[in-house]
């Protein structure tokens, strides 16, 4: 298979493939110094990856448009601590600590908008790379070390708590590999520990959060099921309702010990179908941008676009799978675009096993930001 297709597969899989692979044996690695600004992708008060413009064009079904300005709140009452997904294009098994375009793009797509409601912190970390995932998907041992990646996230978390937190509430945000590492952090460093009282919520996106159906909890941390609830988890994986997950899909699958993958609809915490407030752009978290005709006869010049009423979602179950079922309500008779980006395309066809993994966060970005804002007010 052509190497670019392997790259696409690796991006879509996140840590799905490496979750089953043993980390490559490596010698002791030096710790990163997270007291240094250079070790962070985003920190408050800097012109960095989280300072990118989030201005959006709202495109209505009738073709009318308006520009929605964006302004971060440097005095936001809570913090967000973000761990990004598998995006590194570095050649080794684990990435280096240099901020490349891949990390900047993913912060633009997944974190910067949260600056409206929280101070944004995002450590660089020596993640398992796309190159390592390609090796796994070709049946070879992984050269990546997940423990090294987790150790960096843990060190950054401890540095954040010591230098920056000051008793503030904090939201943990992750996607794919980032979510997998945050699940470990929650289990080992938050659940049952004193810092748990400062957990506003955790957004564990694009990765399976294994929960006991009887308790609806990950360990002792409950899922978010009602407005105003704090200290809880929002987690989902997304698939088109018309193409539900099935073997060999990894995302959303139950575990052999009977735990199910959590599904929390951020637009309807208590359940049911609801419109999603998404923010899309001409690029996803992977690959070069492709021009999208968002509306006939008009050019959209902002990086982001929101399409009210075009997409809705509802948590669904299909055999061993639990997932956020995405419905797109395109109308060929109106001038607005009739579909959304997010499928991983291989040889011109969508790779159905990975659903809409590339836009898990974008699909509900507006809902997630609003939820975190409300939770922050409630936590205060």
From TrEMBL:
UniProt entry tagged with the keyword Signal: yes
Pfam families: DUF3089
Transmembrane parts of this sequence: none
SUPFAM superfamilies, alphabetized: alpha/beta-Hydrolases (SSF53474)
Residues forming coiled coils: none
Annotated signal sequence range: 1-21
Keyword Endoplasmic reticulum: no
The entry's keywords: Signal
Highest taxon listed in the record's lineage: Bacteria
Name of the protein described by the UniProt record: DUF3089 domain-containing protein
């Amino acid at each position: 298979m052509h190497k670019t297709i392997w790259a696409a597969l690796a991006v879509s899989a996140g840590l799905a493939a490496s979750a089953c692979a043993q980390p490559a044996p490596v010698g002791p690695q030096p710790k990163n110094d997270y007291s240094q600004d250079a070790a962070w992708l985003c920190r408050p008060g800097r012109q960095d990856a989280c300072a990118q413009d989030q201005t959006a064009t709202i495109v209505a079904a009738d073709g009318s448009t308006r520009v929605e300005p964006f302004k971060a709140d440097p005095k936001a009452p809570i913090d967000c601590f973000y761990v990004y997904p598998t995006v590194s294009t570095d050649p080794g098994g684990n990435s280096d600590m240099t901020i490349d375009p891949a990390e900047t793009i993913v912060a633009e797509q997944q974190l910067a908008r949260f600056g409206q409601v929280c101070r944004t912190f995002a450590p660089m970390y020596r993640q398992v790379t796309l190159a390592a995932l390609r090796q796994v998907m070709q049946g070879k041992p992984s050269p990546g070390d997940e423990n090294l990646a987790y150790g960096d996230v843990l060190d950054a978390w401890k540095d954040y708590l010591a230098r920056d937190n000051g008793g503030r509430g904090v939201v943990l945000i992750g996607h794919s590999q980032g979510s997998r590492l945050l699940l470990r952090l929650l289990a080992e460093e938050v659940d049952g520990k004193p810092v748990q009282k400062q957990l506003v919520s955790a957004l564990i996106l694009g990765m399976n959060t294994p929960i006991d159906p009887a308790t609806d909890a990950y360990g002792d941390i409950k899922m978010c099921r009602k407005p105003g609830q704090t200290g809880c988890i929002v987690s989902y994986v997304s698939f088109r309702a018309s193409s539900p997950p099935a073997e060999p899909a990894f995302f959303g699958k139950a575990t052999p010990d009977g735990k199910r993958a959590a599904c929390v609809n951020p637009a309807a915490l208590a359940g049911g179908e609801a419109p999603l407030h998404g923010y899309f752009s001409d690029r996803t978290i992977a690959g070069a941008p492709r021009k999208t005709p968002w509306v006939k006869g008009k050019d959209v010049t902002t990086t982001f676009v929101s399409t009210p009423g075009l997409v809705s979602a509802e948590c669904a179950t299909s055999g061993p799978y639990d997932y956020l079922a995405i419905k797109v309500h395109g109308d060929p008779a109106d001038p607005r675009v009739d579909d959304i980006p997010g499928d991983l395309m291989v040889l011109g066809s969508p790779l159905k096993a990975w659903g809409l993994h590339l836009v898990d966060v974008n699909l509900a970005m507006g809902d997630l930001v609003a939820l975190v804002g409300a939770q922050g007010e409630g936590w205060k």
